[in-house]
Amino acid sequence: MCLFFCAFEIHPTYRLIIAANRDEFYERPSQPAAFWSEAPELLAGRDLRGGGTWFGITRSGRIAAVTNYRDPRSHRDDAPSRGRLLTDYLLGRAEAARYLAQLRSKAAAYNGFNLVLGTARELYYYSNRRGGVIALTPGLYGLSNHLLDTPWPKVAHGKEAIGDLLSRAGDPDPEALFDILSDRAVADDRLLPDTGVGLEWERLLSARFIASPAYGTRSSTLLFVDRQDRATFIERSFNANPEPLGTARFEFVLSRDDGA
Q1: 8 A C-beta contact, residue 85 and residue 1
Q2: What is the pLDDT of residue 94?
Q3: pLDDT digit string (tens) for 11-26?
Q4: Among 139, 106, 8, which residue's Cα sits nearest to residue 63?
Q5: Spatial CB neighbours of 105, under 8 Å, sequence gap ≥ 6
Q6: Which of 80, 120, 159, 253 would be a feasible disulfide site paired with 16, CB 3.0-4.6 Å?
């Protein structure tokens, strides 16, 4: 993921609402979200190069998402895949806090990352560019390619739009959330961060939905978990064509395990 919004325990119907975009080079092979044949409890997309995923949920309620921390000066081509950090947790049995505590001792081997993982009842954030594990309290969070709630324009404006949507009476319309994720407006130059990729790329990457000949938003994903533990997962896939390739929807009831 490169843009991740999370409404945790602030909506009367839903314990958790996630709206997220995955941005990647079009040539990087991947599969859209599905239940994995070798791990039928796991619903996630699959990175066919690195072997992991960027966002997933299990039937028992484990949830994990990752964004890259943008710092090209420290990037190492030989670093292990960050996507496997998600599958290790999602397919394991360790509680989230314990998993992250164990990860800290080896986190420096990876390129920069942000992890959000846990369950719809207990979520944690950790970055190998920050230090400690943070237990999320009820609230609305935004994350891109820096630290949690860093107010980059697409994060700040996206949180504002989602907060406005969730403040209205009734349940949020998935299409309204997809509309927020699909905003292609770029930020004013004076508001752009300087992450070391150059002004042209900073402009391109400042949009919530990224579109360019070689790199862009490959999927937009929504997750709703209500207070009866019913999960609704909706994913819309894209390539260089501006029209979506398709939309997949999955609905199931979570069967809680002993990990959190």
Answers
A1: no
A2: 96
A3: 999 999 999 999 999 9
A4: 8
A5: none
A6: 120
Q: Output the CA angle 127-83-14, nearest 5 degrees.
A: 70
As given in the structure block, the two tokens for residue 116 are: 């959000």
Write down the CATH number for the domain with range 3-253: 3.60.60.10
Beta-ladder partners of 217:
23
Domain boundaries, the chain: 3-253
Q: Which of 69, 114, 59, 111 is nearest to 90 (CA)?
A: 59
Rounded to 10 degrees, what is the CA torsion of 175, 151, 68, 219? 10
The number of residues in the chain equals 260
E strand map for 78-213? 113-118, 123-127, 134-135, 139-143
Q: What token pair was written down for 70?
A: 């943008």
Strand segments, DSSP code E, in the chain are 3-8, 14-25, 30-36, 39-47, 55-58, 63-68, 113-118, 123-127, 134-135, 139-143, 215-226, 230-237, 246-253
At residue 208, the 3 state secondary structure works out as coil
- Give the pLDDT confidence score for residue 214 in this predicted structure: 95
